[in-house]
Automatic annotation (TrEMBL):
Keywords from the named record: Amino-acid biosynthesis, Aromatic amino acid biosynthesis, Cobalt, Cytoplasm, Lyase, Metal-binding, NAD, Nucleotide-binding, Zinc
Protein name (Swiss-Prot/TrEMBL): 3-dehydroquinate synthase
Pathway: Metabolic intermediate biosynthesis; chorismate biosynthesis; chorismate from D-erythrose 4-phosphate and phosphoenolpyruvate: step 2/7
Organism from which the protein derives: Desulfosporosinus orientis (strain ATCC 19365 / DSM 765 / NCIMB 8382 / VKM B-1628 / Singapore I)
Enzyme class: lyase
Gene that encodes it: aroB
Metal-binding found in the keyword field: yes
Amino acid sequence: MSLVTWQKIDVAAKDPYPVFLGASLEELGEYLHRHYRDIEHILVVSNPVIADIYWERLKQGLMNYRLNLLIVPAGENEKSLDRLSQLTTEALRCGADRKTLVIALGGGVIGDLTGFFASIFMRGVRFIQVPTTLLAQVDSSIGGKVAVNHPAGKNILGAFYPPLAVWTDFSTLETLEWDEVENGLAESIKHAIISDLALFEFFENEQQRIKQRDKTIWREMVTRSSAVKVKIVSEDEHEQGIRGLLNLGHSFGHALETQMNYSGITHGQGVSIGIVAAAHLAHAKGLMSRAEVERARRLLEVFGLPTTIKEQNPQTLLQHMQADKKNQGGRKILILPKGIGQAIVSRECTDQEILSAWQQVIA
Ligand SMILES: NC(=O)c1ccc[n+]([C@@H]2O[C@H](COP(=O)([O-])OP(=O)(O)OC[C@H]3O[C@@H](n4cnc5c(N)ncnc54)[C@H](O)[C@@H]3O)[C@@H](O)[C@H]2O)c1
């Protein structure tokens, strides 16, 4: 099945918004002109790497606006209160006011930071997500979660603040390093495992063309994976229920990232190992056959994602999981796959079962 080149999916939030898949950077200005006649001033936030490659293209369509580009350095550290404060100073210097539109041009870091800035600047100004990483296109730009980090933890200060629109130009992925592709693939495969068996089969069948970065196949991969995220956040905007399934692999993954001090392991690698650990746990609970666990493991490995980790102490990792934000009343809340294409929230995993799952992924 091949999809048309341009597609719009609506997120059915309290304030619904469209996700434009296959739009082009140059055309954003025309869309804004048609739909938001009152916009005069636009602030684009990006980082030096992305702006260097894509600013000229985006700017082409925005020539009729008073336009400012704010550059923040690359990296997770920039999701900080200090950076928010600096953005505020710069925005005021540029004459931003309550009618200013803010555009996030970048990956999840720029999207989260800029979205949170937009949510609090002058008590909230409009913003648009223009995601440029695979992870941002299939995951972080959709769903309205925006945040910065705090020394006490990741994404501690944040909000649900939906964008006016998500403007996804697939061509921006052509310049992405493979490590960053892997981060997005881990989340896309997670989407398939929790709710879309056909998407999982697509990954299995098209693995070669995905690795070769075949443009048609990537288009389809991003579109179908984004559709999973849209469907889930439309049903549960504020994560009261089903949206929690998107955390598959993350409780295990975060424990690894914390233990390794966020170095030597990427988020996608942590999620990948975490998915396999959760699959082993699901198997122990009779939710998944051995063959299904192997199938999930194989698919992650095909794309170079790790499914085991060396020299870790399961007890220490278990301790990190005690601090998981998702736990309730001392109980660990874990997402477990149910076969492939479904998942459940489990409040019934014992420490012994979790330790056994860790042992399965420690080489
Ligand atoms: N809000 C949410 O729902 C949500 C969901 C998942 C993750 N996140 C957040 O997303 C962040 C991770 O996002 P990410 O993986 O996109 O990382 P990122 O934003 O740090 O981008 C990764 C790297 O890719 C570079 N880059 C971006 N686009 C590029 C392009 N088109 N070509 C070449 N290089 C490019 C960036 O400069 C950066 O160095 C984390 O902070 C995480 O907490 C948020």
